[in-house]
Write a sequence for this structure.
């Protein structure tokens, strides 16, 4: 077990160090988040719509589109110089590779989701203070589910001739539960509703994330076979 | 090779029988639903769309279920026939889901006053339609066909696993948005003749699906054989 | 993708006598069903007037016809597309056999 964890940790650490050095995906996702926030604030007529009412939906949409931008390129760098074959032929089992990739992506996306939250709190004047801890938990659970599905399908998409353009078609229909529960919960938390109202939703988000990670870990070996 | 030919001929004979029964049943269904069954009081004539809409939905879900099941077993046993069955069922599911998705709004426009609502079952079918669109896109965009089969199987399995989540979330989402006019598709008790017509519809669509499925499956078998021969002659 | 394939295969196939007859049969079946539905619904409305509220327009009828036509067209389209692909593969196999 500890050996397994060490393998997961090693691959995850490698990915994070690679990302910290190149800052390729983090920069593009972060810039996307900020610029999407700017564009969204111009796309909303504040005279007719209260920004608090739409902020939750926009936060999640920014997270989904921006996340896809980064998660879609999970295997790009390694595939380009053939390093991924090396990772696969290492003694680490395939599900450890998946968990490590998902973990590294999760760290990136969670950081971006906090940035998105900050951007919207700043640009839209949304007050998130009251339920900040819970909002962060919801964003974390959502990011985890998204990243698990995104990593699995990024591996599939990178193996096809269509590449990343295929990713939205594959992932968006599957993400509906996450968006529904995520937006519904965040919306209520921003509005300062009592926690009892969103408890069930948070549990569903957790279940979705857990199922996505488990399914990815089981199915990943069939994607990267041979 | 020889046994393959025999089985293909048998499949086609079976497919022909089922399809002919299904087509005869379709005529019966049309007769029943146009002449025989009584008109529903609240919705009037338009309720008759129900007799193709619901069977199409049922058949689509059956087909997608078969596809997901065959995909899962394919990843386990790696028998090419399972992958073919999964792909053929998925294609049929796409056809019947399209029927469901186009007839639903035609009915909804009269019954609900709007073409599209986020009715849970309609939404689920729409998302399944897109998931299986992705299934075929993945299948046809890999250079190595074996890879495409595995990828497509993974898509089908993840899609099937996501169904409970989609269903629950869409139900919850809808509880937030009351519909303009709420008319339940089926009343608490369906009068006898309507039930008979509906059951006929379910049986007929299922039989037609399996008939065409057998043809489609035979086609995949022949195609695999032709590919094999082509590879042998070039080698 | 598949749907596009259907549409394309329906549009760009050469006409053979069998196909013309097939289209004719399908179209006339559609026509018969449509008129039958009109007649049947009318008869029914006369038969049990108190039950069925008067229909303000013909619109629901058109929706019913459209729904049944879509069902026939899609199932038929799938059948035709399978038949066409079967013939193509068989041609390929006979060519390979020679």
């Amino acid at each position: 077990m500890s050996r397994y964890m060490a393998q997961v940790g090693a691959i995850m650490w490698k990915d994070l160090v690679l990302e910290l050095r190149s800052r390729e995906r983090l920069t593009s996702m972060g810039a996307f988040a900020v610029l999407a926030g700017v564009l969204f604030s111009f796309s909303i007529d504040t005279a007719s719509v209260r920004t608090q009412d739409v902020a939750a939906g926009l936060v999640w949409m920014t997270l989904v589109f921006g996340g896809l931008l980064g998660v879609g390129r999970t295997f790009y760098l390694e595939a380009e110089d053939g390093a991924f074959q090396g990772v696969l032929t290492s003694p680490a089992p395939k599900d450890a590779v998946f968990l490590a990739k998902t973990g590294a992506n999760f760290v990136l996306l969670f950081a971006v989701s906090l940035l998105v939250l900050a951007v919207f709190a700043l640009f839209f004047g949304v007050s998130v203070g009251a339920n900040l801890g819970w909002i962060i938990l919801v964003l974390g659970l959502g990011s985890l589910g998204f990243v698990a599905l995104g990593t699995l399908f990024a591996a599939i998409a990178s193996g096809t001739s269509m590449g990343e353009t295929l990713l939205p078609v594959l992932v968006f229909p599957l993400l509906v539960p996450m968006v529904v529960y995520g937006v519904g919960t965040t919306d209520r938390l921003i509005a300062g509703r009592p926690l009892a109202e969103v408890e069930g939703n948070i549990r569903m988000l957790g279940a979705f994330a857990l199922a996505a990670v488990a399914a990815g870990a089981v199915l990943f070996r069939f994607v990267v076979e041979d | 090779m020889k046994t393959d030919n025999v089985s293909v001929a048998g499949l086609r004979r079976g497919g022909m029988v089922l399809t002919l029964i299904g087509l005869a049943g379709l005529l019966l269904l049309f007769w029943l639903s146009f002449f025989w069954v009584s008109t529903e009081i609240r919705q009037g004539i338009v309720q008759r769309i129900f007799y193709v809409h619901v069977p199409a939905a049922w058949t689509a879900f059956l087909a997608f279920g078969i596809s997901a099941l065959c995909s899962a077993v394919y990843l386990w046993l790696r028998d090419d026939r399972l992958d073919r069955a999964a792909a053929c069922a998925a294609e049929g599911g796409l056809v019947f889901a399209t029927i469901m998705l186009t007839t639903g709004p035609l009915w909804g426009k009269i019954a609900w006053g709007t073409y599209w609502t986020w009715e849970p079952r309609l939404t689920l079918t729409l998302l399944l339609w897109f998931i299986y669109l992705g299934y075929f896109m993945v299948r046809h965009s890999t250079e190595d066909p074996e890879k495409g089969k595995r990828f497509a199987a993974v898509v089908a399995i993840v899609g099937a696993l996501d169904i409970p989540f989609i269903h629950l979330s869409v139900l919850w989402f809808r509880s937030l948005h009351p519909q303009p006019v709420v008319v339940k598709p089926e009343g608490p008790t369906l009068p006898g003749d309507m039930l008979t017509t509906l059951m006929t519809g379910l049986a007929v669509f299922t039989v037609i699906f399996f008939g065409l499925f057998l043809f489609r499956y035979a086609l995949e078998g022949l195609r695999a054989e032709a590919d094999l021969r082509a590879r042998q002659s070039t080698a | 993708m598949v749907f596009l394939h259907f549409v394309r295969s329906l549009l760009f196939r050469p006409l053979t006598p069998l196909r013309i007859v097939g289209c004719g049969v399908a179209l006339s079946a559609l026509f018969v069903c449509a008129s039958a539905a009109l007649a049947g619904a009318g008869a029914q409305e006369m038969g049990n007037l108190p039950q069925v509220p008067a229909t303000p327009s013909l619109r629901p009828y058109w929706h019913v016809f459209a729904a049944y036509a879509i069902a026939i067209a899609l199932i038929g389209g799938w059948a035709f597309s399978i038949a066409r692909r079967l013939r193509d593969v068989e041609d390929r196999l006979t060519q390979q056999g020679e």
